[in-house]
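Sequence of Multifunctional fusion protein (Anoxybacillus flavithermus NBRC 109594).
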Amino acid sequence: MVKRSRIIAFFLLVVLLGGMMGTTAEKIVKNIKLGLDLQGGFEILYEVKPTKEGEKITKDVLLSTVSALNKRINVLGVSEPRIDVEGNDRIRVQLAGVKDQNKAREILSTEAKLTFRDVHDNVLMDGSDLVEGGAKQTFDDKGKPSVAIQLKDANKFKEVTQKVLSMAPNNVLVIWLDFEEGVDSYAKEVGKEHPKFISAAQVNEVFNQTDVSIVGNFTVEEAKQLADLLNAGALPVELKEIYSTSVGAQFGEQALQKTIFAGIIGIALVFLFMLIFYRLPGIVAVVTLSVYIYLILLVFDWMNGVLTLPGIAALILGVGMAVDANIITYERIKDELKLGKSLMSAYRIGNRGSFGTILDANITTIIAGVVLFAYGTSSVKGFATMLIISILASFITAVYGTRLLLGLLVKSRLFDKKPHYFGVNPKDVLDIAKVTDDTDVPTKFARLDFVKRSKLFFIISGAMFAIGLVLLLTAKLNLGIDFSSGTRVDLMSEKSLTTEEVKQELKQLQLEPKDIVLSGNNNEMAIVRFLGVLDQKEISKLKSHFKEKYGVEPNVSTVSPTVGKELARNAFISVLIASIGIIIYVTVRFEMYMAIAAIVALLHDAFFIIAFFSLTRLEVDLTFIAAVLTIVGYSINDTIVTFDRIRYLMKKRKVKTVDDLKDVVNKALQQTFGRSVNTVLTVVFTVVALLLFGSEAIRNFSFALLAGLISGTYSSLFIAAQLWLIWKAKQLKKGKQKRDQLEAEPEV
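Predicted 3D structure, token representation.
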């Protein structure tokens, strides 16, 4: 009897979820903060150094520096800046949405140490003699912009002006900002059109007062900036820039639009695939995946998280990965329907049988995500955060959400004896009366003998390894500045660019690039790399020049040799830790041989991606490491699905000989082949969409994912299970030999 109340409950629940998401999604999206790579801005990692010999960088000094930087950022009017102390001597500053990046960099790094000196560069007064917050921008008696400051002690200023007056004809009071001992001097600068000192006033009388005016060739903006700097106070340390990345507002806006568009296409393809291939459960998958996306954005909003470009990529990729849980469950239900079970029975067995597989697959990916978060930089941390949230959200929606919604449809009894609504051809359904424990699930791939061709698969992988090794030894990797150090500049123009044109423009700035690579549909973008690390002045000139030339502020990233080595070391450590974590987990949940086989498959995939990048000469950067670790997590998913089926068949059958073992592995691969292809297809849809329509900034990341997905599916089906079979067969033979020996020994 059909229970219509269940159908009504299903539709009411869907309408309720749709209404809730429809009315609140826009507000949630608006609340989410965008990272600097999506709205423009920059990130700088400073090494903190003492200003005087013998001084130590303590925790208090670092906190004092953070406080001083905060005051300066307030001057810039940047909302919600982020300043973090890292280690014992580093401070990372992230400013998203800052309009004038050159000014911001200058204000942050300027020590703002004001000194009053004579013409012989002797210090007469310094910033400690100023009243805190007493500087302001004013105008002098001739209407020129000036800076009014307040001194603490009128008598001290009287003594200073008296001393300078007595030095006639050199009775000049020189005011400096950040005077460098042994480098700067009044004698060097006095004849220059734009001297480094900010003022050099002749003293013709003694002043006994606290109000002093600094007069120079200021614009109103320059005078205001100086007053703000003096009020913010001098930095107690010297800041050395060792890593930086800046993104122009136009780059960020374009990246956001492109990636969202790519996401819509990728997700739409996944939805369409699920509807066509799984039909009624596909409708449930579309609903739960929609809730999944909403849930991720909601949690991210609650966390007050910052959404980055890799973060959006992780969200889009997460949709493809989230649907895996649906596919694992639906395929188990389809298997039971093919064995002639009733819909209710198939639903219960399918849910129960798929839960452990989904749990194992998700935990291994979380291990990779946690390692990424622990060892990655800010953008990679953003990717890792979104990846972890995605996995947790997918587990809730794909497991519990699917069970709730699909359960209502199944328990309505409306679809009993209608297997086609679940993507099962009625012709493939066996007679339940003829089904035994040894009956295999009907599959289209029953004719494929995977074990028979295992040597061929090993030869193919061996050949790929040899070719890859030769490529790495000869061509090596095209390392980006993240690992090789240097400077990278991304230029964008409304018209097509040429290498010669970019070279000529750089020549005007007296800059010699290592290489120039054109990209974009019409070569409207150029990636320029320099061997050395450009300093702040060079970056400022470069940004101003190309913004004026092309109307778009370029992106500039710099990495010092020290940081480059650290990033390379951390990348190696992260892959190693993720691999060890997965070995331990798979060993505990399955067995040691399966864990080792899984790791060999993972190393196979990682090596394939590396060799692919060596062949194509694509740039290896931090997002490449994120892609490798994502594939490490994803590839193990597929391997676990296969191993889970092997374990299931081993329990059902008595395995006594190597032939029995081969049959189990072969049946397991035949039964999971369709599932493996379907799960990888859904992720490929999202990755290809990112590759074709996404931002240039994550193009290499998408390439790495695509190569890894293909390799991961291959290794899960043709390497991991086959290796396990070889090792398990040896174990079985040894066990048989021992039993034979015991049986052959005479009884005493």
